[in-house]
Amino acid sequence: MLPRLEARSAVYEAPAQMALDLRGEVTLEAWVRADRMGQGGGRILDKSAPGTQPGYMLDTFPGNSLRFLNAKGMCTYAAKLPGNRWSHVAGVYSASRKIMKLYLDGREVASLGGDNFPPMTLSTVPLHVGCDPEGGQPLPRPNPARGGVCSRAERRRNRGTRRGGRSPAARWRDR
User: How many domains does the chain have?
Assistant: First the structure.
């Protein structure tokens, strides 16, 4: 059963639960329309305590760039996300296949290499959509409009909870 995302004002939250305690693989994805943001950017999907790397997180730091973070480190891309159209963003991680990648509108735009691809560490905080677990670094509404978390590193042609990705752990739609 998929976690229920609960709206708390302009924030969606899924309580901490086993379905979201992902260690080996994850795909985070969302559709965002990013008005010009300050250097602090905004959180898209966040299941990590601010300032830590347990769990996983996808955001627009710095400014309108993209950043995907977990136990492996940070995968970043100077995306210059536009405010006049929706962009599909995704972060994909697999410890066993040794991949950590960022995608923008279906194209791979950044990746991390090396030999060390540890399992992701567990985070006890809830999954937050559109802000960090303390309610900080919010994305302006109506962001993100839809997206999800998959418990697999989805291949490009299969990626997407919107199209019924093979292993959704959580998904939402704000329209």
Answer: 1
